[in-house]
């Protein structure tokens, strides 16, 4: 399952600035978004283009491509036009670039600046292929011939982060340090408990693994952003690993919450019907991973995040369904005594926050300016995950935790020191 997700994420890096088209693809596409960037000041751009493996018949021939630049409001206005080619009328800036077809695959380069408005500028670069200047000339049966275009945006000071990504590096840095410290702290508690009683608390171990994965994915994301801040590309391998770990991390936390809703480690420890529950759990995980992967494949450069379209709604539906399921089974638990009642009340509160955080963030992101939706859905989700880690740690490892007093393992060894 996660191998499939790895392939999909690798092929669909979230912030692509380079796109490659075959002649057949160019014939079918007319107005093609390439890249997007937001800034509060002047935006610099660099266009790099070349023809890969041109036929010998076209050696040294010049081809013209057109790039149309749209400010956010202009692009929204242009999208109302039924005829794609007429959208050029709403473009804020139009540039043409000459590409020479040669055996050494020469790279054509053009630089410039964009400025518009007084507050924020969100720019979109679009390849205008209405004239089909390349694919109309080069035969379609040349399967190896491709057009490669890179549109590179950066701020006046050389900053690579777009307006909607502003502050993400600081946030990820803080979260990385915080989660690593949290993991070390919780691991020290787990190690001391293991040394003292000689037995593992598997629920505690489960929580520790989740916290460790969160720290690891933040670390990989941090390293990716360090490089991204330098070259505008980052390290796709680190970004991909980070996203896969995040999917696994969310999945494990989801499974842990469902297990506790069933009463695991409180009312029973050995699960029955594993042959039913394990395939069902993997089916849910596969469905979520597949939805995210497909969402990346169909997402457009005009999207601020992959959850703008049907992907966000389907994932929200999955989380809401699991929230209802979790709430129902938590209410079915035997709550004899204040300690058990308090534990399940906190579990219900933390669990509902976990399942409903994403749908709520998605809803709020639809109410604000499009470029702000990234901050709400992506950064909001980061903080929601960290808050979940804190709450779950407090629930299971806090000094005043009710869990230690009511769990089966607690009855067998945590109170053993008091009895001796």
Structural key phrases:
elongated, 4-stranded antiparallel β-sheet, disordered C terminus, Rhopdopsin 7-helix transmembrane proteins, 13 helices, single chain, alpha+beta, 420 residues, disordered N terminus, GPR180/TMEM145 transmembrane domain-containing protein, Jelly Rolls
Shape, principal axes of CA atoms: elongated
- Average pLDDT value? 79
Low-confidence stretches: 1-16, 412-420
Total helical segments: 13
* Beta content: 15-25%
Q: For the report, how would you describe the main beta sheet?
A: 4 strands, antiparallel
CATH architecture of the largest domain: Up-down Bundle
- State Rg: 26 Å
Q: CATH topology of the largest domain, which one?
A: Rhopdopsin 7-helix transmembrane proteins
Helix/strand-derived category reads alpha+beta
- The domain tally reads 2
Strands of the widest sheet, in order across it, are: 1-8-3-6
């Amino acid at each position: 399952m996660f191998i499939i997700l790895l392939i999909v994420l690798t092929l669909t890096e979230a912030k692509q600035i380079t796109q490659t088209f075959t002649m057949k693809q160019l014939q079918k596409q007319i107005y093609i978004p390439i890249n997007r960037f937001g800034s509060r000041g002047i935006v610099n751009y660099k266009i790099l283009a070349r023809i890969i493996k041109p036929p010998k018949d076209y050696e040294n021939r010049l081809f013209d491509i057109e790039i149309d630049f749209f400010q956010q409001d202009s692009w929204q206005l242009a999208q109302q036009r039924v005829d794609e080619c007429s959208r050029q009328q709403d473009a804020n800036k139009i540039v043409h670039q000459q590409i020479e077809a040669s055996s050494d695959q020469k790279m054509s380069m053009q630089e410039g600046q964009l400025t518009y408005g007084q507050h924020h500028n969100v720019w979109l670069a679009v390849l205008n292929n209405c004239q089909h200047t390349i694919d109309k000339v080069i035969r379609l049966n040349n399967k190896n011939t491709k057009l490669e275009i890179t549109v590179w945006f950066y701020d006046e000071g050389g900053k690579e982060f777009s307006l909607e990504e502003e502050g993400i590096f600081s946030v990820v840095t803080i979260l990385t340090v915080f989660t690593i410290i949290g993991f070390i702290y919780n691991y020290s508690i787990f190690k001391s408990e293991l040394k003292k009683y000689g037995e593992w608390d598997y629920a505690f171990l489960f929580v520790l693994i989740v916290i460790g994965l969160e720290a690891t994915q933040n670390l990989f994301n941090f390293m990716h952003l360090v490089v991204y801040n330098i070259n505008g590309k980052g390290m796709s391998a680190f970004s991909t690993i980070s996203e896969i770990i995040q999917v696994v991390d969310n999945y494990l936390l989801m499974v842990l919450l469902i297990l506790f809703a069933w009463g695991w480690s409180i009312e029973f420890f050995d699960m029955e019907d594993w042959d039913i529950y394990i395939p069902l759990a993997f089916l849910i995980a596969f469905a979520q991973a597949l939805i995210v992967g497909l969402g990346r494949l169909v997402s457009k450069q005009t999207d601020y995040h992959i959850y703008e379209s049907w992907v966000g709604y389907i994932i929200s539906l999955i989380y809401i369904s699991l929230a209802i399921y979790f709430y129902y089974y938590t209410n079915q638990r035997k709550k004899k005594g204040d300690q058990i009642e308090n534990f399940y009340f906190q579990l219900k509160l933390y669990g509902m926050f976990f399942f409903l955080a994403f749908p709520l963030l998605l809803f709020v992101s639809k109410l604000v300016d499009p470029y702000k939706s990234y901050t709400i859905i992506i950064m909001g989700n980061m903080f929601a995950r960290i808050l979940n880690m804190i709450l779950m740690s407090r629930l299971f490892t806090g000094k005043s935790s009710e869990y230690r007093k009511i769990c089966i393992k607690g009855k067998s060894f945590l109170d053993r020191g008091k009895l001796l």
